C-alpha cells in the first residue's frame, strides 16, 4: 500500500512540475529554451556533380553523379515578435541566420560543380503545353545566349541565388503572349532571400491552462490551418510541431508528426529505438520511408500524386514551386524504389547517413538531437522544341541534399541529466525501499496477529477447561482435592469452625440445558472457610471473573 501510494505521489509531483515549467510564458524554463534554443545547428549541403554531360546530351548514358560536400553553415535561430492569444496559442516568427564554416567544410562555398541548367529546363517544362511557335522562339533565345542543358555554378549560387539576366529577357518575350511566372524574375536559387529571414508566421499551442495534449503543436502557419496545394484534405493538414519539441511524456507508442515548411507538408514520425546522447537517455523517432511511398503502399499519400503517382521514394513539389520540375526525396533516394537509381548512377543510399531522425527526451519532449535531411531533384526529359534537351533521358536528377543537424550542447545536456534524469533514476530505489518497508511492516503485522490469536486461544481453552470442571463438580462429581467422600455441594453447606476467615468468590456456573449447545449462566455466591487441606481457595482463585459492567444482569454477594 505504501509503495502504491508513493508511486501515485511521484506521478502527482511530476505532473505538478511539468505544469509549473512547461507552459510557454515569461519566466518558465521551457519558454527560455523555446525562445532561444541553446542548440548548435549545423546546416550541411552536399551537391551532385554530373560527370558525363556529353553522353547524357547524346542520350547514350544516364547521368553519373559524384557527391561533393559537406559545405557547412552554422545556423542561429531565435523567435521574435512573440504574441499571446486568448485561445492558449502563441504567435511568432523565427528568423534564421547562416554563417559559412570553412574549417568544417570540404572547401569554400565558391566551389563549382556541373549540374542541370535549372532555369532553362524550368522554362521548357512550363512551356511544354504552349504553342509550338512560342517554344521555338524561347529556345532560340536561349541558344543565342549560349545556354545549354548543363551549367557550371557554385554551391553558394545554387543555394543562395544568383542573378540570371536570361530569365528577365525570357519574361519580356512571354509577356507578349500573356504568359507570366514568378520564377521569371531574373533571379534563381533554392534558398534565395532566406538568410536572416524566417520560414513563415507560426501560431502554436502554449500549454497555458495545463493544456498539454497539443503542446507546441502548430495551430496555424502563415495564418493557414491547412494548405491548399495538394489533392486531399489529409495531405493539406498542418499537423504536429516544428520538430524542436513535442508534447511531454513521450513514449514508444506516441504518435508524433512534424511540419516542414520547406517540404510544404507534414510528416509522421515512427519510433525506432532507445538511444543515448551526452549520457541523456532518449527515444529515437525517424521519418519512415512510407511517408514517401506511392499511394498503393500508403493510401495517405494519394494527395501527393500531382497529377499522377510516381514510384515510392519521391513526390512532386512542382505545385508548391510555381510548376518548376522540383521533386523531393530522402537523400540518395534511401528507402525508395530502385527505379530512381536505375535512372542515375553514383548514388549510395545509407539508412544511418540519410534517414532523418529525432532523439527525444521522453519526460520533457525536447529533441536532444535531430537530423533534418532531404534531397532536391529535378525531373529531366526530352523536349522536342528545345534543342538542348531533344535527346535528354528521363531521370530524377539529384541536385543537392541537406543535412541539418541540431544537438544540445554538453552543458545543457548535463542540466537535463541532473535535473530530470538522475532524480527519476533514483525513484526505483526509493520506490523499492518503500515497498520493502511496507512488506516488512505487513509481515510483522501478520506475525503479531498470529501471536495474538494463539494467546487468546490458550486463554479461551483454559477458561473452558475450568468451566467444564466447575460444571462437573456442581453436578455432584467428586474431586480428589476435596476428599473422596465430599462433594462440592456439601463443601458449600459446611463451615469449619476453626476457619480464620471467610473467602468470598463470585462463581458463574454453567448449567447444561436441554439443548447440548446452549448454556446459561447464573451467579453462584460461595462463602467458603479457608481449608488448607482441601485448598478450596486455590481452586476458585484459578477462575477468571468476567466484567461486571452489566451489574443488573450479574448480582453480587
From TrEMBL:
Residues 527-557 are annotated as: Disordered. Keywords: Cell membrane, Disulfide bond, Glycoprotein, Membrane, Receptor, Transmembrane, Transmembrane helix. Its main location: membrane. One of its GO terms (molecular function) is scavenger receptor activity. It is found in: Cell membrane. InterPro entries: CD36/SCARB1/SNMP1, CD36_fam. The keyword Cell membrane applies. The chain crosses the membrane at residues 429-452. It is a multi-pass membrane protein. GO terms for cellular component: cytoplasm; plasma membrane. PANTHER family: LYSOSOME MEMBRANE PROTEIN 2, SCAVENGER RECEPTOR CLASS B TYPE-1 SR-B1. Belongs to the CD36 family. This is Scavenger receptor class B member 1. The lineage of its organism: Eukaryota, Metazoa, Spiralia, Lophotrochozoa, Mollusca.
